[in-house]
C-alpha cells in the first residue's frame, strides 16, 4: 500500500524565543524537520507533504533539494485544520503517516509497527504511558479499546488521571481523511480544529483504533523550548553513543561525546572526552582521538593518533600518522601515511607525502610536499600575493630550516636544504643548500644606550 507522510510544521514555536522557525532549530547539527524527513525517507514514503506556516520561505529554502510537497497553513487554527490543508493534494488511496516537525527522534521502527497494525483497522496512533501526562491529549479506553482522545483543557478530573497520552503521531487511511477532516468542528476549550477528533469519528464508523508504543520514550518527545531541545539533544547523543559502543568503539565517556552527522569506525577506535564529529567522518582501525578534537567531513586511516584539541575540516589523513596537540587541518589537507604534524601547525589545500614532518608552528597552504621532508619550526608558505594564490612545491627528501618564508610560486628541488631564517623567492635546485640571510654583524664591547638623567 502506498504511504504518504504528512508533517505538521506550521507552529510558531514562540517559546523558543528565536528568530529561527522552530522546525529549523538544530538537533545534533540537523534541523528538527530534517530528522523527520530523514526518517520518512527510510520508510520509502511515496510522497512527503509538509505543512508550513511561520517562516515558510526559510523553511522551504532549507529543504529545497528534497522532494517535498509544501502546503501552506496561513493561520494556525489547530492540528485538524492543518491536515485539512493537504486534502487538495492528498491521494484518495493508500494511508498517511501524520508526524510532527517538532518531534524529531521518532524511529522508523516505531512507524513501521504503526503502519503494520493500522493498515488493517484504517486508523492507528502512537501512544505512551507515563506517570504524569499533564498537557497532553488523553487516551480514553473502554474494555481496553480506544474510544476517544480528550485534550487536557477539555478533560474532566477523572480523564486527567489517565496516564496514557496521544503523542500526535498517527496512521490513517487517506479515504477516511477525505471523509472525516471536512467534518471537524472547533467547538472545544481552545476553539481549534482538533485532529484528535477523528478518533471519535472512527469509532462512530465502527472502526477499531490501533495503537503502538515507541521502544524509547524520547522518540516521542516534542521540542517547545530551549530546555527541552537541550534535554533531547543529550538523549539523542546518548543513543548514538550507545550504538557506536555496541559496534565496538571505545568512548571514554559517552556523556561527553557529540556526533552531528555520521561516523563510520573500524575496530578498536578510541575517542577521548569532548570530541565533536560533524558531517560524514570515517576512522580506521585503532585510530585514537584525543580530548576536545573536532572533526568535520574527515577521513582518518588506521593506526593514526590524534592528540588533544586538534581541528579537522574536509581533510584526509593516512595510516599511522601523528597529529597534534593543537593542529589544524583545513579543507584540502591531504596527508599520506606516517606523517607527523605537531602543535600549532595549520595545513590547507596541501598534500604531504609519506613520512614527512612539520612538527611546530607552521602554515602550509596550497603546497605539494613530497615524501620524507622535514619542515622546520615556524615555516610559512607565503601563498597569497594580495590578489592570487600560488603553489609551493617541495620535492622528496627536502629539509626546510627553521623559520623559513617560502614565497610562492616556488619549487624546492628534491634533496635540497634551506638555511634557518631564509626568505626564499626563487626556486632551489635539487640537492643544493640555499641560505638567504644577512651575514652576522658583531661589534666588540658594545655599550647599550643609557637612560637620560632628568
Ligand atoms: C497535540 C494533540 C494532543 C497531543 C499533543 C502531542 C491535538 C488537538 N492535540 O496537542 O492530543 O497529546 O499534540 O504533542 O491535535 N500545528 C500546526 N498547525 C496548527 C496547530 C499545530 O501545524 O494549527 C503543528 C505544530 O507546529 C506542532 C503540531 O502541530 O508541530 C502539534 O501542535 P501542538 O500545538 O504542539 O499540539 P497540541 O495541540 O498542544
Ligand atoms: Ca495547541
Question: Which outline best applies?
Answer: elongated
Structural class: alpha/beta
Strand content: 25-35%
Low-confidence stretches: none
Number of domains: 2
Q: Main sheet, how many strands, which sense, barrel?
A: 23 strands, parallel
- Please tell me the CATH architecture of the largest domain by its name: Alpha-Beta Complex
Name given to the CATH homologous superfamily of the largest domain = Spore Coat Polysaccharide Biosynthesis Protein SpsA, Chain A
Number of helices: 8
- Whole-number average pLDDT? 97
Q: Tally of extended strands?
A: 37
Helix content: 10-25%
**Which oligomeric form is depicted?**
single chain
Query: What is the fold named in CATH at topology level of the largest domain?
Result: Spore Coat Polysaccharide Biosynthesis Protein SpsA, Chain A
N- and C-termini, Cα separation: 99 Å
Rg result: 31 Å
Bound molecules: uridine-diphosphate-N-acetylglucosamine, calcium ion
- Report the top-level CATH class of the largest domain: Alpha Beta
Pfam family, one: Hexapep
Keywords: Acyltransferase, Cell shape, Cell wall biogenesis/degradation, Cytoplasm, Magnesium, Metal-binding, Multifunctional enzyme, Nucleotidyltransferase, Peptidoglycan synthesis, Repeat, Transferase
Subunit structure: Homotrimer.
Binding site for UDP-N-acetyl-alpha-D-glucosamine: 8-11, 22, 73, 78-79, 100-102, 137, 151, 166, 224, 330, 348, 363, 374
